C-alpha cells in the first residue's frame, strides 16, 4: 500500500458507501413497518457526525447538491442514501433523520432514525481513528430513543414501534480499509481471517443487543466490493488503477459467513427474530465492471475533484473540478456512491430481501 494511500484517505476521511437518484423502489403498502431504525457508518449516516467533534463530516457543498433544495445534510453523497429510498418504499418519510440533530423532537424521529456515524466500524478501534461514534454508543442512543419514544407515545405504542420497526445495519468496510489494512495494530494481533471472525462476533453481539431491547425485524447488509472504491484503486500498489482483488475477496468471505453462519444461527436461537442478509456486493460489482450497461460513464473515479482520492473536506476544496452530471458517475467522491447508485442498491435490497417485511 502506498504511503499516499495510507495518509490521504484518513487525512481526508474515507468511509463506506451510499447512493441513489431518481425513481427508487416502488412505494410499498404503508403501515406494515412503522419505522426504519439504522445503525452503521457513512453509508447510512444522515448527519450525526455534524454534532460531534470530528473531521469525518460532509455537511458542506458539494455534498447534498441534489438533496431537496441542495442543502448539505451530512450525507456522504450528492443526494439521498439507500436507506432513504428504502424508507420511502415502505410508505415512510423520504429521508431518515439523524438522531443527534438537536432541532428534531421525538415525534420527528418516531417513523425513522439513524444512529450511524461516518468513519465508524464494528471494532471500537476503528471509531477511534477519527473520534466518531462507536457501535456501543449507537446502541446506547437506541436505548435512550426507546425510553423517549415510550414517554411520548405511551408504553404500548412505544413497544409496538420498537417491535415492528425494521432495523438496518450497514457497517464493516471501515474496519478493513481504515483500520486493518491501513494501520499496524490489528494486523499484529490477527490474520485477516481471524479479524473477520472477530468482526462477525461483534456484529452478532449488536444484533443480540437490539433483540434484547425488543427489535425483531432486521437486515444486515453485506460488504460491497471495497477493493473497487476509487481510493482503493489509487492505492493498489500491485495493480495501479485496478480493483484491489484481495480486498474484494475479504468482502466476499465476510459476506458468505454472515449469510451462511451468523444469520441462520441467530434466527434459530433468538425468539421471534426475523433477520435477513442483504447482498449489495453483486450489484455494485456488476456496475463497476461494466458501467455503460447501466447508464454510467465513469466507475473508476468519483465526481468530486480528480475523483481519485478526494473525500470529505477535500471535495469542498476541489469544487472547480466537480463533474457536471453526477448521474453519470457510480461514485460521488473517492469512496461513496452517487445518489443514483444508492437508488440502485436500494432497489436490489428491496427486491431481494426486504419485500418479506411488507
UniProtKB/TrEMBL annotation:
In the record, which residues are listed under signal peptide? 1-22
Please tell me whether the keyword Signal is annotated for this protein: yes
One of the Pfam families matching this protein, by short name: Lipase_GDSL
Q: Which UniProt keywords are listed? A: Signal
Instruction: Extract the InterPro entries matched here.
Output: GDSL, GDSL_lipolytic_enzyme, SGNH_hydro_sf, SGNH_plant_lipase-like
GO MF term set: hydrolase activity, acting on ester bonds
CDD domains according to UniProt: SGNH_plant_lipase_like (cd01837)
Coiled coil residues, start to end: none
**Family that this chain belongs to:** Belongs to the 'GDSL' lipolytic enzyme family.
**What is the designated name of this protein?**
GDSL esterase/lipase
Amino acid at each position: 500500500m502506498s504511503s499516499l494511500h495510507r495518509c490521504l484517505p484518513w487525512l481526508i476521511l474515507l468511509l463506506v458507501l451510499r447512493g441513489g437518484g431518481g425513481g427508487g423502489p416502488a412505494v410499498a403498502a404503508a403501515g406494515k413497518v412503522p419505522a426504519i431504525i439504522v445503525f452503521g457508518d457513512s453509508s447510512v449516516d444522515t448527519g450525526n457526525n455534524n454534532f460531534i467533534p470530528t473531521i469525518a463530516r460532509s455537511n458542506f457543498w458539494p455534498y447534498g447538491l441534489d438533496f431537496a433544495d441542495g442543502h448539505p445534510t451530512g450525507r456522504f453523497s450528492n443526494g439521498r442514501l439507500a436507506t432513504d429510498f428504502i424508507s420511502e418504499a415502505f410508505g415512510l418519510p423520504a429521508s431518515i433523520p439523524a438522531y443527534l440533530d438537536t432541532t428534531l423532537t421525538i415525534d420527528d424521529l418516531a417513523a425513522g432514525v439513524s444512529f450511524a456515524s461516518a468513519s465508524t466500524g464494528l471494532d471500537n478501534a476503528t471509531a477511534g481513528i477519527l473520534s466518531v461514534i462507536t457501535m456501543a454508543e449507537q446502541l446506547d442512543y437506541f436505548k435512550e430513543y426507546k425510553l423517549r419514544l415510550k414517554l411520548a407515545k405511551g408504553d404500548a405504542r412505544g413497544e409496538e414501534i420498537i417491535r415492528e420497526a425494521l432495523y438496518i445495519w450497514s457497517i464493516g468496510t471501515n474496519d478493513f480499509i481504515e483500520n486493518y489494512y491501513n494501520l499496524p495494530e490489528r494486523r499484529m494481533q490477527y490474520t485477516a481471517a481471524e479479524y473477520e471472525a472477530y468482526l462477525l462476533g461483534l456484529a452478532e453481539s449488536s444484533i443480540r443487543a437490539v433483540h434484547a431491547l425488543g427489535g425483531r425485524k432486521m437486515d444486515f447488509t453485506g460488504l460491497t466490493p471495497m477493493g473497487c472504491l476509487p481510493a482503493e484503486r489509487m492505492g493498489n500498489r500491485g495493480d495501479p488503477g485496478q480493483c484491489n482483488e484481495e480486498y474484494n475477496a475479504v468482502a466476499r468471505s465476510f459476506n458468505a459467513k454472515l449469510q451462511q453462519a451468523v444469520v441462520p444461527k441467530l434466527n434459530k436461537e433468538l425468539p421471534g427474530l426475523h433477520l435477513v442478509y442483504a447482498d449489495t456486493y453483486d450489484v455494485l460489482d456488476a456496475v463497476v465492471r461494466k458501467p455503460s450497461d447501466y447508464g454510467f460513464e465513469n466507475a473508476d473515479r468519483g465526481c468530486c475533484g480528480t475523483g481519485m482520492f478526494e473525500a470529505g473536506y477535500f471535495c469542498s476544496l476541489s469544487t472547480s473540478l466537480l463533474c457536471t452530471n453526477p448521474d453519470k458517475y457510480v461514485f460521488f467522491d473517492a469512496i461513496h456512491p452517487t445518489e443514483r447508485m444508492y437508488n440502485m442498491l436500494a432497489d436490489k435490497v428491496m427486491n431481494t430481501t426486504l419485500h418479506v417485511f411488507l
